[in-house]
Amino acid sequence: MPAPSPLPTFLYKILPSAPPSPLPPRLPLSDLDRKDGYIHLSTSEQVASTADKWFDSFSELWLLKIKYDVLEAGTDGDGEVKTDNQAEIKWEEVGRGCFAHFYNGDLGSGNVKEAIKVEKTGTWADSLSLEW
């Protein structure tokens, strides 16, 4: 499945609770990411609908904001570019659209720009204003 055009500047990972601070070089995978074999990511336009579908009962979420070009380069959570079994983004069709999946890598202090706490006011769409 082709990537969106134009490509996003940022991708987001939704977390149900605060990540460690400071971020370690490698964050633990969620049960879903471990089961599926990749890290589920969303563009700014997909975060609200993903949050509504999977995190509707939560009153706050944390988002990891990740520069797309850093992940596309194969940068792992420790900040190193993996040259063997390279970490990579694949855009794949899911029932609700085309989503970014990060394979063969981790998220951490070396590839996450910042962690953002978001409190729900109304719907998640009402609560979010994210950079593409």
Number of distinct helices: 4
CATH superfamily: Protein of unknown function DUF952
Assign the CATH class.
Alpha Beta
Average predicted confidence as pLDDT? 92
Number of strands: 6
Rg, please? 14 Å
Strand arrangement within the widest β-sheet reads: 1-3-6
Our count of domains comes out at 1
Class of secondary structure makeup:
alpha+beta
Described by strand count, sense and barrel closure, the largest sheet is: 3 strands, antiparallel
**Intertermini distance:** 20 Å
Description of the structure:
- The protein is an alpha+beta fold.
- The protein has one domain (10-127): Protein of unknown function DUF952 (ADP-ribosylation fold), CATH 3.20.170.20.
- Helices cover 20% and strands 27% of the residues.
- Strands 1-3-6 form a three-stranded antiparallel beta sheet. Strands 2-5-4 form a three-stranded antiparallel beta sheet.
- A hairpin with a 2-residue loop joins strand 4 and strand 5.
- The mean pLDDT is 92.
- This is DUF952-domain-containing protein.
- InterPro entries: DUF952 (IPR009297).
- It holds the Pfam family DUF952.
- It comes from Ophiobolus disseminans.
List the helices and strands and how they pair.
Blueprint: E1 10-15, H1 31-36, E2 39-40, H2 44-54, E3 60-67, H3 68-72, E4 88-94, E5 97-103, E6 114-119, H4 124-127
Antiparallel strand pairs: 1-3, 2-5, 3-6, 4-5
Organism: Ophiobolus disseminans
InterPro entries: DUF952
Pfam family, one: DUF952
